[in-house]
Structures are given as C-alpha cells and as structure tokens.
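Q: Convert this sequence to structure tokens.
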Amino acid sequence: MLAGAFFGFTPVLLPYNQPHAIVMDLLRQTNADALVAQAGSLPLEELSRAAGGLKQVIWVVENTSRHVGWSDVPNSIGTKIGVSTWHELVEQQRSSPAELPADGSGRKPGNLVAVWQSRSGADAEIVEFTQAASASDQQGRRTSTDNKSRRM
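A:
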C-alpha cells in the first residue's frame, strides 16, 4: 500500500477467501489493473475473461511450492496479463538501491480502495479513501493519544 503513494497507483483491498465469481465481480467493479493473491487461488483464464482491466497478476507463493512454474501463462491468455511471483520480484530488487524514488512529477498519490462485507457472501460496499483523508486520520490519532501511550 505504501508503494501506491510513490508510484501513483490505487491499492484495492478485497475480502479474503471469496468464491471466484465474487472476486471477479469485485475486480470489475473496482477497475483493478493488478492483483496480488495466493498462488493458484484464481484461474488465470477466467481472470483474463472476467476482469478485462487486469494487466498484472502477482502470485504469493509458499516456500514449499516455489519449484512450481507459477509465472507460466496459458497460451490462451498470451500477453493479456503479465504473471510474476512475489519472491522473484523481491529477489530481482535485492541489488537495487534502498532509497525511495524521487517524485518530481508533481502527481498526487493514489487513493486506497477497500471492499467491505459484513459477512461472506453479503453485498459488498466499496469505500475509497483519499491520501488527504488518510493523512488527517493519522494526525488525528496522534493528537488524540496521550504522550505515554504514544511511546508504547
């Protein structure tokens, strides 16, 4: 989520462990262009058909399953969706400088979209939080907490 502030994208938080059809519908409703999910939790071919705006899928793979070719893409998908794994992305960036990127573009940070359900299968409520609202929320929490509690 922090990267969204530096790279101008909007993270979308979806409820976990939902049926495929609900996830596909939420991806369409939120117009998500990337997905980070548990490896193999959603079928790639269905994702490419149902979530037309999706451009990138990043699988989070358990250590015991890293020998599987999670980045392989079925021929029917071709280059519609890029597929990679979280551990490979992290490994590729180990040699990169550990400094934050400079932002000379003047662009505004992305917002945060959260999808809320009172229970699994219930209608979803999509709430978008702006960076300004998030910053004022954090500041409000800091000023409303006494000094002793802040140090803990």
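The chain has a mean pLDDT of 77.
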